[in-house]
Amino acid sequence: MSLKTFRSKILIAVLGSFLFFSLILSITSAYFNYTQIKAESEEKLMNMVRHQTALIDAAFIQKKTSGNFIQNYIGNTVDPVRIRTDREYFYRYKAELEPVIYALAEENKDAWFFSIRNF
Q: Which string of DSSP letters, residue by residue, matches 8-75?
């Protein structure tokens, strides 16, 4: 075996090893990047879900508080015996209650309050 052939074989082996290790390094790097991007995406998604959940919870609590206010207001201002017996009292009370409901709806920018006027 000549020196030239030996050098060529060593050069091919070195180049082959270099290419093989480069390929392994590229695959490892791509996998690491994939796992990193996946973890960051999951974290961002969870943060977005937490934020949206907090917004929904706040809106629900606000609606529940408004509903409780209306229930307490009606419970404290209506005469239950008179409302059953006097139809005029019912219509006067309804006319008295509508501005309160509309003011609360305007304040909270909630359209669901307007359905109360059809009771």
A: HHHHHHHHHHHHHHHHHHHHHHHHHHHHHHHHHHHHHHHHHHHHHHHHHHHHHHHHHHHHHHHHHHHH
